[in-house]
Amino acid sequence: MPKTRAQKEDTVKTLTDQLSRAKSVVFANYQGLTMSQLSVLRSELRTQNATFNITKNNLLKIALKGAHLPETDAGSITGPIATLLTFEDEITPIKALTKAIKDNGIGEIKGGLLDGEFMTASKVVQLSTLPSKDQLRAQVVGALGSPLYGIVGVLQANLRNLVYALDQIRISRGGE
Fold first, then answer.
1. CB 3.0-4.6 Å disulfide test: which of 30, 73, 82, 109 passes with 121?
2. What does the protein in this record do (predicted)?
3. pLDDT, tens digit, 9 for 90 and up, residues 109-139
4. What is the pLDDT of residues 53-86, one digit of tens each?
5. Are 162 and 125 in a shared domain?
């Protein structure tokens, strides 16, 4: 049953709000994925504070204009399109989507938006290979901490050498 004009306006309003709040947006062809695969993907993305919506292309284009986002290239919003909207971590949900597409061998990334700039499909796939924010934070903390461990080791070595020297003096003087 077709949607009424009021339902379409509500859809556009909701999508415009989501697009304006989203940190990144990815457009993907979902054709070929079964409903069970889609529901598994959606539940996984929901845990990462992201949504995966299937919307009519015309309504999506109107919502993009309403959210003051840049125009996408002509091939990004053609055919059956699903929209991934991320609200916290920009990378992790994109990784989950590209993994699901790769594992199922069905669907493809069409393009996306990050920080208000259009990305091609290859850039979105390249972005999915980056480590997550938590992994990057752990790497930075490790890099900042390693010189401190080196300094502690050097300072402990001097004290340890002093103790060894005193122990050798004690032994050479006949102490036990």
1. 109
2. Forms part of the ribosomal stalk, playing a central role in the interaction of the ribosome with GTP-bound translation factors.
3. 998 998 888 888 899 999 888 887 788 889 8
4. 888 888 888 888 888 887 676 667 788 889 999 9
5. no
Token duo for residue 64:
């993009």
Q: Are residues 106 and 173 in the same domain?
A: no
DSSP assignment of 13-74, as one string? Answer: HHHHHHHHH-SEEEEEE-TT--HHHHHHHHHHHHHTTEEEEE--HHHHHHHHHHTTPPPPPT
The answer to whether residues 122 and 76 belong to one domain is yes
- Quote the CA–CA distance of 16 and 38 in Å, as a whole number: 23
| DSSP-assigned letter for residue 1 | -
Indicate if 38 and 102 belong to the same structural domain: yes
Alpha-carbon distance of 93 to 129, in angstroms, equals 12
